[in-house]
Amino acid sequence: MFLCYDITRLETFAHLDTWYEEMMSQCDPDVTIVLVGTKKDLESERMVTTARAQQFMKEKSINFFFETSAKSGENVEEVFITAAKILYYRFREKFDQMKEKMMAQRAGGRGKKLTKKKNSLT
Length: 122
Fold this sequence. Notes:
Elements: E1 2-6, H1 10-14, H2 16-26, E2 34-38, H3 50-59, E3 64-67, H4 76-90, H5 92-110, E4 116-117, E5 120-121
Parallel strand pairs: 1-2, 2-3
Antiparallel strand pairs: 4-5
């Protein structure tokens, strides 16, 4: 889950506690949270320090933190790559099982021999 705030608006950071508690009440206890500070391109207007965000991260045991800019693209791709890796490694076993099942289904369809019998193919 992404927990986002605007680095230029202190009130968005102040709401993180509420959003965090809401997430924890609605999600699996093992949910992985990524803390994301947005609008990094507006550094001169920063109201939330990186240190303050890192402190929040430690208090809530959040393992991932990024500051991003949609305008410049800074760290945007990294956030989504990290999320994809988290999902992959968390669900790797399930993915492997699904892959094996799909391969077995495909092999089952190809493995049939065509032989002539009266009005049927087997």
